[in-house]
């Protein structure tokens, strides 16, 4: 049994290793190798390895990046000075790696004041920058202290010099800023639930909201195992039911691998919490 468990963990680790094309957690206090950053008009720039409370992210329970992240603190960079800053990652040849589908997974925290400040994610398509995410301060609800997770399909922009750029624009106003905890570029072709399609399997939502992931199938779901990014099994269930809810409130934000068995069918997929 121990050998089976170990083999399963090794397969999980291998899957994650193959899936992750590029990753940065911004834990260190210096800019990561290969990355570049611009500064605002006053010389204010990004802070790396920041683990304190994120100002403006909640008065009673402010958010933080426990192991560190990168932030642009607009509040300390001067009011009405038009801070427009960029953080750009290194390029990577996705064609040479035979990547056919890809996605960006991001954990961030956008802090607004009076609905001011925009956060954007752009990707280089080989010719021009393409916007794949716009978090508009006008559309952002008051921050409750929770970090946000997003998964962005970037398959349409696969090329031999792919790269990502994070942009923050304070719209020439007074506002709080932006923080990024974790960035991952994934080869999504490595995850598959094709074998489960015939038994009507589906899951939602992804990213996981309210800490609950719901699994459904036309037949009874026999086994569900959840692994973190270092191959540790963090949830194991035997629902024996056509619907099963995974309660993930005790798990930290991040990427998880879900392995499901329905009858004689097996599948693997990833979710973001």
From TrEMBL:
**Short name of any one Pfam family annotated for the protein:** Por_Secre_tail
Which residues does the UniProt record annotate as the domain Secretion system C-terminal sorting? 205-271
Does the keyword field hold Ion transport?
A: no
Source domain of life is Bacteria
The signal peptide stretch is 1-19
Q: Which InterPro entries match?
A: Secre_tail
Keywords on record: Signal
| Protein name per UniProt | T9SS type A sorting domain-containing protein
